[in-house]
Amino acid sequence: MKKAPRSTARELALLGLSQLQTSSGSLEKKQLQEVVLAAVRTLRTEAQDILETAAAELQRGSDRLLSSQIGTTDIESARAMLYEVIELGQRAINHIGTAVELPEILQLTNQLEVRSYAMEIMTKVNGNKKEIDKLLRESIIDWQVERLPRIDLDILRIAVAEMMFIGIQKQVAISQAVELAKRYSGEDGHKFINGVLRRVFDKMNVI
Fold first, then answer.
1. Domain positions in the chain
2. Residue 109 phi, psi (nearest 5)
3. CA distance 23 to 38
């Protein structure tokens, strides 16, 4: 599936926010550009790491296959090794599938539209952090904003900033945040983020 420029911009903004100071305030354009460049370098490093991981999985699978040919004396052991080889191969394929998307993402990062929107997101998040976090505190049940993983908090902040200060449709902002969480958050992070943003959505409709 072709990746939309704004989806790439959100990824850049997410990676960029993790490199900013925690205090809110105005950001110089030069500083923002430097942060975006650092985020692009992070994506490039990620692509390299993913391919190296895939190569390692394939090598392990090859080694296990060779072991099964020369080191097993019964069918059950050979079958167990074969299943392991298949699993390693599948994991390598999954890694390669992820890496295939990254050249397109990296190409998109060179577009002015992508970098401009990434900088707009970071500016809105950084300049309105107190208001954004206040709304998040009111929407998070049985948890504290300060205890959230930084990546989850930044995904939430991006979505709220888009809804409150950029004018992105609320459903679009939520769905894009969920996609970011699937890529960057923990196993169930996207479910948590979806739930919080649904409550943010309800509160914003009441305000």
1. 1-127, 128-207
2. -65, -15
3. 19
For the domain spanning 128-207, the CATH number is: 1.10.940.10
Per-residue pLDDT reduced to its tens digit, 183-198 = 888 888 999 999 999 9
Q: What tokens were used for 91?
A: 């994991």
pLDDT in tens, 28-77: 666 666 777 777 677 666 666 666 676 676 677 666 666 655 555 556 66
**Residues 38 and 117: beta-carbon distance below 8 Å:** no
Whether the full predicted model's pTM is greater than 0.70, yes or no, is: no
Nearest CA among 154, 146, 160, 147 for reference residue 183? 154
What pLDDT does residue 119 have?
86
CA torsion sign for 146, 152, 155, 160 is negative
Q: How far apart are the first and last CA of the chain?
A: 37
Q: Are 138 and 163 in contact (CB under 8 A)?
A: no
